[in-house]
Amino acid sequence: MQRIAIYPGSFDPITNGHLDIVFRASRLFDKTILAVAYHNEKDTLFNIQERVKLCKEATAMIDNVEVRQFKGLVVDFAKNVNSIVIVKGLRAVSDFEYELQLLLMNRKLYDEVETVFLTPRNCYLYLSSSIIKQVAKLGGDVSEYVPKSVKKALEEKYKNLDSDI
Amino acid sequence: MQRIAIYPGSFDPITNGHLDIVFRASRLFDKTILAVAYHNEKDTLFNIQERVKLCKEATAMIDNVEVRQFKGLVVDFAKNVNSIVIVKGLRAVSDFEYELQLLLMNRKLYDEVETVFLTPRNCYLYLSSSIIKQVAKLGGDVSEYVPKSVKKALEEKYKNLDSDI
Amino acid sequence: MQRIAIYPGSFDPITNGHLDIVFRASRLFDKTILAVAYHNEKDTLFNIQERVKLCKEATAMIDNVEVRQFKGLVVDFAKNVNSIVIVKGLRAVSDFEYELQLLLMNRKLYDEVETVFLTPRNCYLYLSSSIIKQVAKLGGDVSEYVPKSVKKALEEKYKNLDSDI
Amino acid sequence: MQRIAIYPGSFDPITNGHLDIVFRASRLFDKTILAVAYHNEKDTLFNIQERVKLCKEATAMIDNVEVRQFKGLVVDFAKNVNSIVIVKGLRAVSDFEYELQLLLMNRKLYDEVETVFLTPRNCYLYLSSSIIKQVAKLGGDVSEYVPKSVKKALEEKYKNLDSDI
Amino acid sequence: MQRIAIYPGSFDPITNGHLDIVFRASRLFDKTILAVAYHNEKDTLFNIQERVKLCKEATAMIDNVEVRQFKGLVVDFAKNVNSIVIVKGLRAVSDFEYELQLLLMNRKLYDEVETVFLTPRNCYLYLSSSIIKQVAKLGGDVSEYVPKSVKKALEEKYKNLDSDI
Amino acid sequence: MQRIAIYPGSFDPITNGHLDIVFRASRLFDKTILAVAYHNEKDTLFNIQERVKLCKEATAMIDNVEVRQFKGLVVDFAKNVNSIVIVKGLRAVSDFEYELQLLLMNRKLYDEVETVFLTPRNCYLYLSSSIIKQVAKLGGDVSEYVPKSVKKALEEKYKNLDSDI
Q1: 3-state secondary structure D12-72
Q2: In this complex, which chains have at least 3 CB pairs below 8 Å with chain C?
Q3: Interface size between B and E, measured as CB pairs under 8 A
Q4: Any domain includes F17
Q5: Do A131 and D102 touch (CB under 8 A)?
Q6: Predicted model pTM
Q7: If you count Cβ atoms within 10 Å of the first and of the last residue's Cβ in chain E, which end, N or C, has fewer?
Q8: pLDDT of C89 strictly over 70
Q9: Neighbours of chain D (3+ CB pairs under 8 A)
Q10: How many CA atoms lie within 13 A of E110 on its CB side?
Q11: Would E143 be classed as within a structural domain?
Q12: pLDDT digits (tens, 9 = 90+) for E46-83
């Protein structure tokens, strides 16, 4: 039996911290699906197409990783793709509590899928998409924390925002 | 002297976790007033009338519990109803810190009222109204976590939201 | 029906933080029993007789407070004295987790008793018997944090320790 | 060499907790610059001019403190004013994690500036601008937590909001 | 390639919380080795032979689980048995930090093994071997939290301790 | 006026994490005194002379750093050496709470000295002397986390322990 993991998130945008987790997951399971969650466009910086595209570019070199988008409950998506594992990256403490809340709810909704937490490298332990956006917006250099294509996409996005002002 | 407790919150909507706390409080104090806080309508899913109605239905069977709405400071409401106890349900860690902040401020504003923390059953320790709404919105089954009337109200609410799209 | 609370602990020795909690409990319940836990003598600075005596002196002026010692499970003691409430003082975060562990276990062992958490005054939020002992041992002045009799008892104790060296 | 510290924040509005930190910083470093961050007007209660003015009034009596506004990255501002220290007030746990996230990012962006955490007095440990605003909005008395000028400004602000309704 | 996980710990004694984790791991990996760590006899209630025996009895019915004892570094044991995964059960917050410390150290010592965190059922989230021992020692009923053989072993152990007194 | 900082601790033994903090402190203050706390010999792996010696060797190249030993209260030592700053390295969350407890007590005992928290590099955020000792004892390689002299001292120490068995 093939063991399929999903790694759900907003990936708005994908960071090196996410990639670190994807890579670790790809070694533990036969296939890992990076599952990009649909959101209302106004709630994310990048729309769903952009987020998926950036994820695909960033994971192109890992064989057993696939990028898909989904709408609705994570557990329903897991069921649809025959996944038995939800992978989550674990960072700070407050993070863990929220993740625990999700995990317990997901387990109640569908108990055939197991949530596993993986921990990124030291330097990504306190990284998040929001701090990346915050820094990029103010003109800071985020090249150590995101793939090149994401860096470029962030520059484009914030240039446009600027010209709006 | 009768000891009156108030249990303030948004209750947007009331969950089984809230009910667990109400029930525990009702055994410790002579009367418990479930105090539903007024908010701007756009900040809650259910308006104040709906929230009060759902709370009343859910607590109808507990003798010494009363449901009231209030506007303004919790301590002012406590003073008005001669309450000497504010009951809070305690869940996760981050929760506790925010509650501590409120408690210390409330104590400064009016030191005749004591805040006590009660802990719900295991299975409600990581429950919150927001995760309930999030799951219900995506079509998940929340019947283990809310009273029947709340489940129905959530379905109504999100059906209407859907037809808006 | 009279509502009896117990406030269990080592009280090695009792501090102003403990007294603050006792006082708050005494306003909420008809009677509060300060329950001093038996320990092996080598595990505490003061033996059980000394700890009980210091607690009695410190709470002498509060009418509805009683000091008792107990051995064995807290819930068994609660049952024996017809108590329906275990009072715990809540301080820092790590504290809360350990207390939660105890609470859930106690509830499983005997679910007729409810645990309530009370919060001491600001200045006692980060106080503990161990830091008091640590400071007193090194000759620091702890008079703002303990009753006079405790201060004297600590001085006696550490003077004797000194002469041992 | 003169050691210059900056103390960045929104100060929306400045509280006695902030002032406590400024005062402590002023004793440790030759000069402390209270650096008020620019934000979109709709994101703060007071606009940048108001926030700066309230900070200036509140710190007027401390010799080696200066109030400045800035836009963009904190580290760029630090560089511009030759500061080697970013001062942060530390309060609750969740606070610390977010601050750690900022610190590590700032260090990566510019490693010539060191972040130091100072702790305010007991009674300000759980204080924040948001709880002040929340209480003031509901008519509570915040005079123990903010300078007089801030109290007056809050009253003005919320009076106007009221008349809008 | 067969994926082998190790689940290291003291298991002094094994609890239902541990068993819950073992069972979850057994579904995710081809083989799971429950790895019982050697300790000085005086540091554990049960000696290494007893701990291993109790673990074997408790996991006898799960096909792809094996019990082994080890001495030395966890990562060295992982290397010896060709394991690519260290499984850890995650409970409360403070737990997580200590686990993070171990994880980062282990990764530095041997980066071919990945640590994954699994979460037990709700009712075991706040369970630990030490609270089990504490309760059993005082005569409390722990049968909901440990396998029958462990319950019996605890009774034996504490009966003997009693007769020593 | 010269600003003198003290950096108190057990340093049993000094790690690269400690050195990272010393170095940061040395840039912020005119002089930094690494203050090695006296303990009963049986409570530390290295005795006070050994700990001081290892600290001296490790900090020899930093000009404005001095190593001293002390007995008694940290604040008394601070007073004796005219220090106005106690430097503490900040790591994980639980750490912070204990440090807060010490800080508030120290401030009460002597309010002329300020405690500042500095944060070490990413890779030392979860490092502690105890995990170093634990790993070294089991034969793991700790050379990335301690100065060479400490590594050698640990090897000596644990070799002797071995031959005792």
Answers
A1: CCCCHHHHHHHHHHHHHCCEEEEEEECCCHHHCCCCHHHHHHHHHHHHCCCCCEEEEEECC
A2: B, D, E, F
A3: 8
A4: yes
A5: yes
A6: 0.93
A7: C
A8: yes
A9: A, B, C, F
A10: 20
A11: no
A12: 999 999 999 999 999 999 999 999 999 999 999 999 99
> How many domains does one find in chain F?
1
DSSP string computed for F48-59: HHHHHHHHHHHH
Tell me how many helices (H) and strands (E) chain F has.
Answer: 6, 5
CA distances from D31 to D24, D25, D34, D60 (A): 12, 8, 10, 14
Q: Does F93 touch chain A (CB under 8 A)?
A: yes
Q: Give the CATH number of the domain where residue F91 resides.
A: 3.40.50.620
pLDDT score of C94: 60
What is the domain range of residue F101? 4-126
Determine, for residues B73 and D144 on separate chains, whether the beta-carbon distance falls below 8 Å: no
In the three-class reduction of DSSP (H, G, I as helix; E, B as strand; rest coil), residue D82 is classed as coil
D56 within domain boundaries: yes
Contact E73 F131 (CB under 8 A): no
Q: How is residue B98 written in tokens?
A: 């925010």
**Does residue C38 belong to any structural domain of this protein?**
yes
Catalytic residues of B: 18, 42, 91, 129
Q: With an 8 Å Cβ cutoff, is D122 touching chain C? A: yes
ipTM score over 0.90, yes or no: yes
B92 near D CB under 8 A = no
Are B52 and B72 a contacting pair, CB within 8 Å? Answer: no
* C125 at interface of D, judged by CB pairs closer than 8 A: yes
**pLDDT digit string, tens, across residues B14-49:** 999 999 999 999 999 999 999 999 998 889 999 999
Alpha-carbon span F106 to F85, nearest angstrom = 11
The residues of A annotated as belonging to the active site are 18, 42, 91, 129
Residues of D belonging to the active site:
18, 42, 91, 129
Query: Is E84 touching F (CB cutoff 8 A)?
Result: no
DSSP letter, residue C46: S
